[in-house]
User: What shape does this take?
Amino acid sequence: MIDAQRSPLLTDLYQLTMLEAYFQSRIEDTAVFEFFVRRLPEQRNFLVAAGLEQTLTFLQGLHFDQEELDWLAASGKFKPGFIDRLACLRFTGEVDAMAEGTVFFADEPILRVIAPMPEAQLVESRLVNLLHLQTLIASKAARCVLTAPDKQLVDFGMRRAHGAEAAMAAARASYLAGFAATATVLAEQRFGIPTVGTMAHSFVQAHDGEEEAFLNFARCHPDNAVLLIDTYDTLRGARRVVELAPRLAAEGIALRGVRIDSGDLGALSREVRKILDTGGCAALKIFLSGNLDEFRLDELVRAQTPADGFGIGTHLDVSEDAPSLDCVYKLQEYAGMPRRKRSSGKATWPGRKQVFRHLDGAGRLSRDVLGLLDEESPGQTLLHPVMRGGERLRAAPALAQSREYCAQQLATLPEPLRGLHPARTPYPVGVSDALAALASRVDAAFA
Amino acid sequence: MIDAQRSPLLTDLYQLTMLEAYFQSRIEDTAVFEFFVRRLPEQRNFLVAAGLEQTLTFLQGLHFDQEELDWLAASGKFKPGFIDRLACLRFTGEVDAMAEGTVFFADEPILRVIAPMPEAQLVESRLVNLLHLQTLIASKAARCVLTAPDKQLVDFGMRRAHGAEAAMAAARASYLAGFAATATVLAEQRFGIPTVGTMAHSFVQAHDGEEEAFLNFARCHPDNAVLLIDTYDTLRGARRVVELAPRLAAEGIALRGVRIDSGDLGALSREVRKILDTGGCAALKIFLSGNLDEFRLDELVRAQTPADGFGIGTHLDVSEDAPSLDCVYKLQEYAGMPRRKRSSGKATWPGRKQVFRHLDGAGRLSRDVLGLLDEESPGQTLLHPVMRGGERLRAAPALAQSREYCAQQLATLPEPLRGLHPARTPYPVGVSDALAALASRVDAAFA
Assistant: This one.
């Protein structure tokens, strides 16, 4: 079976029909496309760029396998000469991008592709697919991290992520944004993300009683057992842990903590904390899960809930309150001429652009300016070269390094942008005089 | 790189830590798990079962590769004996399920696994992941199909689906639910789903003018060109099509239609229809796209918008208004003893269950009864054997056949459930006396 994650057939049909027309009409000059988000979701004051590494891997490996070429030929949709062209197609272009973990805003390109038109066009659908997903999750995860900076946050969402790639992307993007760990085993194997886990209700239910279940689990995992105490009655479960702890200690087994997955998590954790503390189990940690998101997290943290960690599942992995971003990959220049889409409500800024960022005296974000790549403008530049001639300019940074960078980026957020609710005034992103002038010239030329 | 879609490492860590404890404590007797949705999303009056075939493929192929075993061993998380057990682990169990395309409701199991506890437990995370995704999308797609039954609906959402597998699942699940086609090329290669496509704004922009772009595209695709007319000015674009059509006809080229992707789609399509009709282009079809979902579709259909087809993208592929289902895979019986989770707000019905469906005289759904598998009860039974001894009982039905079955299922929906807004009274799903009695007995036994 063709691997969907690698295949150039994971694309919209029109990419191929357009490609055939580009070749036939010799529209093979240099094209400049930029990826950006048109509008932030209502509940997002900023976004976090992610997915660049998977995108570069896709671009670097772009090619049609024989099986794919044969299928295209047999489909009857294309002329034989086109299939021959596809057989030698590779991505030979340039990519500039914001580093993963960079905080960004609407209209700011986070990635630019410069390549012969057919190459730059063909990669659109999958490039958007890859950047969208991880940026979506990293942005949601960052809100959780800002809400509970001192807690251990863990991605628990694999089972309801939208498929295998989404589950892996969620583990990666949430870790990048500051999560401590994931429950997804393959994410440790592939990305080196720490994994943690406890037990499920089914484990408790498979035993004749909770006590037997707790003992069996702790004896099997003597160093780090976290017991799920809410299968039947949470407080009774906590008292059972207190009873068993000395017996287990006598066997050399130290429990790590308990997990509560249902009920009034705030009230229950206070009571459980009391039971554990008065029962000589002050060292045991309390982990909470069950339908959590950044808003619920905020309530729990504000109420000083005595929890050490939180498992955030479905709401994180599907970005429940904003499951998509209005992101696009738009042609900004072709054959040296800036281009601008003027569709109603969807106009874009033409040309090759740079984002210039200004910080205040305290190192917090003050304003960004969207300008032309080649203009002289003060401020930090956010887009940097990452690929030339279809090859990465350097090895992918370690994920831990990108995570550290993301933490620095989040530290630059001014107070109004850190909140969970829409900031009264959105972050100012201006347009440079040079860019505004270019847009006017393009409009005049195409009027 | 390990293939995430196949790997048993795409799971929650606790599945493996529980497994180790199951082996160590010899909890290897027969377990019965059922997959069901606890509550329907507010905007869903019914759901459509989907994803069974991918789930069976996963179960049938379940095994740990040497690379996976080596990594687990090196992780230091597990004892060597456990790795040996994993090396020989296969799925040897039974599966009963609702056919793909079946309409179902809260609390109704759509799939049951009966297998030795370790096998039945290990498969949980990925099984939920697979069934959740396609059921989610099929249920969203069915709403679109019911809203616009006479229109050509096309999945346009690949680029913002949550990754590669989600894009493929969205194409498959929406076709199953009655969509006519997808834009995703690989979905035609893998599933035989018809693909359609038009052109992108970038294609028009890459040319010096719209006319040149239209001519080049039509000449390359003389049988089925659909021209995107909203890049600069939709009505001017439509008039240009009218001007070019006779020239192209003289070359033997028949345009298929136009697409509008922005602006007031209802008003624009009426004006465009007039321009085309009065310009001798009455045969040209109008396709609409741009931020569509079933609600927008409903408005357009009610307004008798003269459109022939609709591309539904992001809203479909991420199920925007309800991006997750509250679905679970719960232990219902272990070693012959029914089990019941009683966590606050999350209690489940114990035992092996069947759904008995009652239709009214007109063949419309009247009520369902959740009962025990072995009880005598009137009504159609919805769960059927699909796997025994880890092997499929029959080849997967053709997708077209499941699609036909789904259409029949949707035809059984009574009027109140067909609407887009929550039905005043939800569909009645009763519980049989035998099941209620069993639940009481289980509660008493574990009290």
User: Anything to note?
Assistant: Residues 70 and 305 of chain A are 60 Å apart (CA to CA). The radius of gyration of chain A is 26 Å. Chain A touches chain B through 105 residues (CB under 8 Å). The mean pLDDT of chain A is 96.
